[in-house]
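Incident review: delayed structure delivery

Summary: a single-chain prediction request sat in the queue longer than the usual turnaround. Root cause was a stuck worker, restarted by the on-call engineer. No data loss occurred. The affected request and its eventual output are reproduced below so the record is complete for anyone auditing the incident later.

Affected input:
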Amino acid sequence: MVLYGVAALAVCMLTGTLVGEYLGEALGVDANVGGVGFAMIMLVFATHWLRQKGKFPQASEQGVLFWSAMYIPIVIAMASTQNVYKAVTGGPMALLAGLLALVAGLALVPVIGRIGGRGEPLPPLTEGTSEAESATAEQGV
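Output delivered after worker restart:
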């Protein structure tokens, strides 16, 4: 059921938030440190483990996929703006760390792009025909 997938996501999110809060306390920071990241890692491991055990049906997976499509971009957008003012006024080290992360990300784009092999390009669609008509025409039906 879709509800089980949403429940798995919720449990991982709550657990990750608690871990992030406790980590922040342990480091002496008045903030959640990596809670969303911990939640996503737990969700990946939990769903992988459940799939291996055969206890994660397709419908449950749809619940996780639905919320990941809705939730992850929103959380990333929120996290990217978190404490920007403090980071900028905190000194050159915060700016240097941000710039180094940006440069590393840009440098890794071609490396990640080479992962996997080259696939065959999709056949062109002719104007005025649908994909189903094009597929049946190619098969000679």
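Verification: The radius of gyration is 22 Å.
Action items: add queue-age alerting; document worker restart procedure.
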